[in-house]
Fold:
Amino acid sequence: MKPVRNLGAGIHAAFTDSWVRFLLALTCVMITTASIFYRWAEGWSWLDAAYFSVITISTIGYGDFSPQTAMGKVFTIFYVISGLGIFVVTASAIAERIISSARHDSGVHRPDR
Structure:
């Protein structure tokens, strides 16, 4: 039960960190912007546009949706290039805070590099 408690504490620490919250907000803004764009340019439903935006930025890419317009394809190129970096930094920051919290709670300290 202690590992679950430690994980919970780590998640709490991550989501109370101002840098993580900023990155999450930035990620949400990017997904929302992309969803609005795909709704407008591709004519997709809000759900399909949001789904595609999340699947694309996370690099899962099931392939069930793809932009059909030239504008949609060009936007997707820039969305992937910029969004992937933001997504990876956000996921890494959350993981780092969770791991840091777990180390702190267990008494294991690792010097900064």
Notes: The first helix runs from residue 2 to 16. The helical segments are 2-16, 18-42, 46-57, 70-106. The CA atoms of residues 27 and 92 lie 13 Å apart.
